[in-house]
Amino acid sequence: MQAVKGQSLGLALTASQALRDNRNSEAVALLNRAVALDPSAAVTRTALADLYFTSREFELALEEYKTAEAVATEQGSPLVRHALQRIKEIERLR
Q: 2-93 sits in which CATH class?
């Protein structure tokens, strides 16, 4: 299990570099792979949701924020607040 979490983290870090280099589609693909490896990673799900949000792909962002909120709540993560704020913001944009 630790190996999978390590792979997921590695993908998320590579995605972060891709974002810095304005390679957004590559970052989305990497974050989706990271989420597939470790669906319980609230940080990775939130990063993916944030990327969808900034790309104005609000339906995809909403789906990821809702999942991130559920995972973060289960883990007692402070990411719950961020996810809930973004969910409200998306619902206002609809």
A: mainly alpha
CB of 68 within 8 A of CB of 46?
yes
**What is the spatial distance between Cα 48 and Cα 16, in angstroms, rounded to a whole number?**
10
* Residue spans of the chain under pLDDT 70: none
The position carrying tokens 């990411």 is 79
Which pLDDT tens digit goes with each residue over 59-84?
Answer: 999 999 999 999 999 999 999 999 99
d(CA 91, CA 8): 30
Lookup result for tokens 């390679």: 23
Q: Tokens in use for 12?
A: 């998320």
Q: Domain map of the chain by residue range?
A: 2-93
CA angle 7, 11, 36 (to 5 degrees): 75
